[in-house]
Structures are given as C-alpha cells and as structure tokens.
Amino acid sequence: MLTQDLFEGVTPRGKMLFTAGLGALLLLPEVADSYLISILTLIFWFAYVGQAWNVMMGFAGQLSLGHALYVGLGGYGAAALYMHLGLGPWVGMLVVVPVCALVGMAIGWLGFRFGVRGVHFALLTIACAEFTRVAFDHITALGGSGGLFLPVVGGRGDDLLMLRGSPQLYYYVMLVLALLALALCRIVTRTRLGYFWLALRENPDAAAALGIPLLRVKLLAVGLSAGMTAVGGVFYAFYYNNLFPDQVFAMGRSIEILLGPIVGGIGTVFGPVLGAMILTPLGEGASLLLEALGITLPGTKQVIYGLMLVLIICFRPAGIWPWLAVKAGLVVPPGETDLREKGEAE
Amino acid sequence: MSLTLQGMTWLTRRQVLVGSAGLVGAASVLGAPALGQSSSGPLKIGVLLPRSGILAQAGQSCARAEAIGASVLKGLGYSVEILSADTESNTDTARARAEKLINDGAHVIVGAFDSGQTGAAAQVCEQRGIPLVVNIAAAPQLTEQGYKTFFRNFPTSLDLVGNAFPLMKEVFATTGKAPTKALFLHANDTFGMANKGAFERLFPNAAMPFSMLEPIAYDPKAQDLSVEVAKAKASGAELLIVTTRAADAILIVREMVKQRFEPMGIMSPGSSGLYDEQFYKVLGKYSDYATTILPWYDGKTPLSQQVRAEFVKIFPKDNFEGHAFNIGCTLDALLVAADAHKRAGTTAAPALLEALRTTKLETHMMIGPAITFDAKGQNVNFSSAVVQNLDQRPTVVLPKGAAEKAPVFPMPGWQNRG
Whose CB among A168, A216, B243, B357 lies 3.0–4.6 Å from B195's, allowing a Cys bridge? Predict the structure, then answer.
C-alpha cells in the first residue's frame, strides 16, 4: 500500500527508471572512484537539503532565504555534543533536530503572528541566519570565527554510529537520507496537512476562509523543514570535520540550498533531487571542460555556471522536472490521473 | 513475469536488470578508478590553491611558484609534474578538488593557503592515504586533529606570535624607542582568531614594554573599517598590531591616513596584506614603514636568486618582493615533496609518507635551518625576520645578519613622507 502511494501517478517507465537508477546508485561504489563518490555525496546532500527547503517554500509557500541557519545550528550542535560529551551524531540529532525545529518555529511565529509575509519574511530569515553567524563568530567554546575542528579517528574502519570512515560510508548514509527525505515529502504531501499546505500556498485567504488554521500549518512546515535541514548540518559537520561560521551560516550557502529546487521545480517532490543532479555536475563539468580546453583563467567556471543557470531559468522558469517528467513519460500528465481512475472504476 | 503490488502492474524483472546493468555500466565508464598508478616516473604534485574567490589574490600569488618551480626543481635534479586546482576559496570545493587531483594521479597534494580549505583537503588525503604538504595555513588545530598524512611547512599562530615578540623588542632596542600601549586590530577569520588566541596566551610571559588594550575584531569582507580605526585612534594606542588579509590592510591604512591616526608603528605577526604587491600599488608612499614579522625568504642564497631570475623572466611586469613570501612558502612545500620522492625512489604513498617523516631538507628558500617534521607533521624549526616596507618594497631589517637596512621606528607621520 505504501509503495503504491509513493509511486502514485508515476508511469511504468518512470518506475523502471527510478528503480534502475537506484539499483545503479547502490552498486556504484563498487566500480566508481572516490572522486565520483564524493561528487555524488555532494549531490545527495544538496538534494536532501533542497528537499527540506522545498517543504517550506514549495509545499507551504513560505520563502526562506536563511536556511543555512539550520545547517549551521545542526552541525555545530552535533559537533559540540561529540567533542564535549562524546555523543555520536545520531544521538546528537535527537537533540539538535528538535532544537532547530523549535528555532524555526520561533522565527516563523515571530513572522506569521505579526503579519510579516512574503519578501519581508524572507528578509527575517536572512537576518536570523546572519546574526547567528555573527554570534557564532564570538562563541569561543565552539572555536569562534577560528573554526571548530573535529578530531580525526583513523584506523578503525567504517563506524556508522560515529559517522567516521571511508567515502563509501558517507555516500550510502547521504543516499539513504536523500531517499528518506524524498519518501517523507511524497507521503506528507498526500496527507491532510499536505493538502492544507497546498491550499495555503495557492490562496492563503481562501484557505483561512475554509477554516484551515494557517498559523499552525505554517509553523509545522517551518518546523519540519528546519528539523530536516538540521540533519543535513549534522552530516556536513562529520563529513568535512571542520566548521566555520562564515561558511556554514553564509548567505551563499542558503542560496546554494534553494538553487536545486528552483532549477528542478519548486513544489515538486522530485524537483530538488533533479536540481541537485544538474547543478553539482554542471559546476564540475564546467571545470572539466575548461581543463580539457586548457583554459586556466580563474573564475571562468563561475561565469559558465552563471550563464547556464540563467539559460535554465529563462527557458524553464517552472523548473525542469515538471517539463521533463511529462515529456519523457515518467509521470501521468496532470489532469489525466482522475480520468484514468474514473476509467478504471467504470 | 511482472512485479505486481496491490493489483498494480509495476515493472518486469528484465526491465529492472537491464536498466540497472546499463546505468552501472555507464557509471563504471564515467567513474572508473584511475588506471593503476605506476610507482616509477615523475612525481605528480597536485597544487590546491584559492585561485578565485575572496582569497584569489593570495592564491594566485602562491600559484606563481608553480610556473617558477617547474624549471627550478628540474635544475635541482627533481623529477616532478605539477597538476593545478582551484578551491574557489570554498571548503566544499577544496574537498572535491582534492579528490579530483588524486583521481588524476597526484601522488602528493600541496596547499591550500587557508586553514579551512586545508582542513577539508586533509580529510580527503587522510582517507586516500596521500600526503598533504601544507604551504600556508596557521591554525594550530590542524596538527592536533590526528592526521597521519599531514605535513605542515608553515609555523602555527603560536609560533608566529612567539617569534614576533623577541624581534619586536629588538626593533625597540635598535631604535631606542618603545611604545607603552598597543592595540591588536584583527580580522575575525580563522587566522585572525588564531593569532588573537596566541597573543592572549603568550603576551603575559613575553615581558613586552607595552600594555595591551582591548582588541578590536572586524569582518575581513567589510567594505568600510572607519569605525574600527576611529576606535583604535580613540584608545590612544601607540602601536597598532594587526592581522589582516589583502583588502582590509589597504582599508585600514587608508582610514588611518584619512583620520590622521599616527601611531608609532604598524606591526603584524605574520599576516598577509602589508607586504602584498597590491598594498604598494594602491597606497604608494603610505605603504612605507608598515612592518611584518614572519618567515621570509633568504635573498642571499643561490636558490632565491635563481627563483628571482625566473620570476623576472616569467612575470616581467610584477615586483618579486610583493610575491616573495607566497612563492617562497609554496616553493618550499614543492621542494619538500620532491625531496621525499627523490629519497623514497618511488611515488608509492607509503614510501613517500615515510620519506616525508624523515625529511631534513637543507636547500630551501625561506630563512631557517633544515626543514624537518615532528611526530604531528609540524615543522618546528622556523625562524622569522622583521620585514619593513621601505621605498615601497619589503626590506629585511632584522635579524642583523640578514638585514638589508636598519629598522625605522617610530614611523614618520603621513604628511611627512616624500
């Protein structure tokens, strides 16, 4: 039943491609080198945090431009618990995820309770991320702006509990997290809450008139989104082994998080995944292309990356996934699902 | 036979197998591990630097050592091939680029100028068992994290500041003038905070002639430092001790001139900025008399002269002194790697690591004894020199043995410069 729900509206071709792709990703570390594995790990990470951001913006229509806040809080929180109390990242998540969800909900409450909407709410999220960055610059117990360096534990092989080990370990962990986020979003959008979000996103006034408790519904979206992003932050801390406020809380990181869903398709479940699958290889591909052409001028990659981004957004403003999914016959086109269901019933 | 769930036609076993096999096949072609690396042949050194982004100026300055090193190392009998990579001043990219360099066959990584990016690369090198020789990165924590493949040929912040105190006293003794109050104005990035920590730890026992006022921190990306400079002026500091990057060093001096803040001197315990070429170009006569106490190249050795000659040949429009520190540190890191390769007689990582641990490199560009590494991979034998900007070029003024000119202290006021 669950599988059926997860794949509702997906054509057999779509299912085959998904299953084959997943199978390939599961087997890939057996044949791929560490570079490809690290790039894919990065793709999964961006797919995951993009999915988390999409919960808030894509499903509930609340724009956040400061999601790096939760990456940083999650990362620093888990790293501090590991370094000062010896608690592993999974235990750390039990602490940092609710904390981040509450922080998100507190920011949301501040905004929604006092009627701060749209662009102004987005500015509030930026402000919160920025002042947290400045605050962390001065928390010396966490390294301040000098950074927090996690100790390296070598020679014990892969340790899933402590999230210590080879690139393959991080690859599988991030793959599973990305899949769980995908499944979670797919399920949540099919629940009563998901439909409330949809109503809120499409027309808040109409939703309120229908009796949907908007404040509670918005806060749930922010809380879920912040909590999910915090998990991404925990992974980030243990993957990179060092944290710097000006890197994890940076505005640039918030933008990186939302680029995937925008390019892939805001409000779609698979859009953030596709966006991450396009953007990360695009950056790396630009580097490889320049290398092959023998161009060593620094900054050229960023120019190419920017141009490609402009082209994608110009030609597919709603994102690539909605267009690709229909064009390639991966999902049942919108509007046809009901007709098919009706046909089957008859 | 089809997989059927809850009465729903899903997909056939054949479809799954064919699809998976196709994708794995494609992935294996795209991501095939580098062909078995031969342990003979030249040493491939991956040079990881921030060639774009906020640290681009320093990264590109370091990168000049690649062009110079190719011929210099060959002349010294080393067989190396250099692979370049750009961290884009970003830790995520630094990690991915380190992976790529190793994938492309790099036997050793050299880099990465910044502690954060170096830390990201160190994680990769440790996982892959590839040595990382650090050219510039001062955060003490890097050698405390427990890496086994990490070798830093650069002093930690503690060493930089610790070496600076006695040389400051020597400047005061030589000139017969000493300040009574000093203020530490620093960027609040990794390097700035590490230097601040070192100051707080070492100053109480340094027996300096001045007292330290409350330090002032600033964001190195700030576009305006007028408030910070005004605060420094109001504090009555007679000596301004700074830890800067490139752009902020210029902003600070510009503001000092504008606000007529004229302390006895501006001194830096090893940070970049005050001796960068851009500093001289932008500030002209106002760049003079700023002093940096740091490991510096020994201009009298044949190697340094050879490097200078190569620099002039390759970059005829640039001033060597403006890049000497970055080039010297990076070239020495390349030399360390090449020397280990020569002694190991192979490019195999275990042999290279063992050779690096027993490094004793006499011929290098920076002032100081032979390069060696302790158990944590740190070179602890660094010497510093007092480098003062005189006639718009960095000039060694102390120690006396290496001095080109005598130190000037206090520095002349802004209006009293030709």
Answer: B243
